[in-house]
Design brief:
Elements lengths: L1 E8 L4 H13 L5 E3 L6 E10 L1 H15 L5 E13 L2 E9 L3 H16 L12 E7 L5 H11 L3 E7 L1 E8 L6 E9 L4
Antiparallel strand pairs: 1-3, 1-8, 2-6, 4-5, 4-7, 5-6, 8-9
Length: about 190
C-alpha cells in the first residue's frame, strides 16, 4: 500500500515566493507547518492508501488520458484561509476560475469512478496550500497578511502535465515521489 494523490505541480515564481517569504518572516514565532516550495501543487484527487495493483491500473488510465490534453495557463491570485479568519487551519494561494483545470479535475474523477475509487463531492476549489496552522497565537498578524494579499494577482503558470504522486510521511514533512508524470501533447 502506498499513500497517493493526483496533482498539478506548481513551480513558484517571484510572486508566489514573495508572499510565502512575507508570511514566514511575519509569523516566525507562530507554530506553522510550512509547505516546502518544491512540494507546491494543486490537488486533483487525494486517494489515501492504495494497493500496488490499483496504482498500476490507475497509472495506465491516467497516461492514456494525458495525450488528449494540450498545455493551458492558470492564474494564481489572492490569499485566503480554510475554516475562517478567526480560526484558520490552512493558508492558501487561490487559482482564478479555469475551465481547463476544472475539466482536467472532472476527467480524473471519471477515471477514478471507472476504477471504483471514491471521488470527492462538492465544488472544486483549486488552491495552493503553503501553510498549515497548529496553534493560533498570532491571529491579528495572520489576518493582516491575508488582507494584504487577498486581492493580489501573483503570476501565471503554464500547465503542461499532471502527476500521480506517492506521499511519504517523514518527521520533517512529507516527501513526494512521482508514481507517474503525464505530459500533455504540445500545442
Amino acid at each position: 500500500m502506498r499513500r497517493v494523490f493526483i496533482s498539478v505541480n506548481i513551480e513558484p515564481g517571484p510572486g508566489i515566493m514573495g508572499v510565502y517569504k512575507d508570511f514566514k518572516e511575519n509569523l516566525i514565532n507562530e507554530p506553522v507547518k510550512w509547505v516546502r516550495p518544491e512540494n507546491f501543487h494543486i490537488t486533483l484527487a487525494f486517494l489515501g492508501d492504495l494497493a500496488e495493483e490499483r496504482i498500476s491500473s490507475l497509472s495506465d488510465k491516467l497516461q492514456k488520458v494525458s495525450v488528449l490534453w494540450k498545455p493551458f495557463t492558470i492564474e494564481l491570485s489572492g490569499v485566503g484561509v480554510f475554516r475562517n479568519i478567526r480560526n484558520p487551519s490552512v493558508i492558501w494561494i487561490g487559482i482564478k476560475p479555469s475551465i481547463p483545470l476544472n475539466n482536467l479535475k472532472y476527467q480524473v474523477g471519471e477515471i477514478l469512478l471507472e476504477e471504483g475509487l471514491p471521488v470527492e463531492s462538492g465544488d472544486f476549489s483549486p488552491h495552493l496550500t503553503f501553510a498549515r496552522l497548529k496553534k493560533k497565537k498570532y491571529l491579528k498578524e495572520i489576518e493582516q497578511l491575508v488582507k494584504k494579499y487577498e486581492n493580489k494577482e501573483f503570476e501565471s503558470q503554464r500547465i503542461d502535465s499532471f502527476e500521480f504522486n506517492q506521499s511519504i510521511l517523514k518527521p520533517g514533512g512529507p516527501v513526494y515521489k512521482p508514481v507517474g508524470v503525464y505530459p500533455f501533447i504540445s500545442a
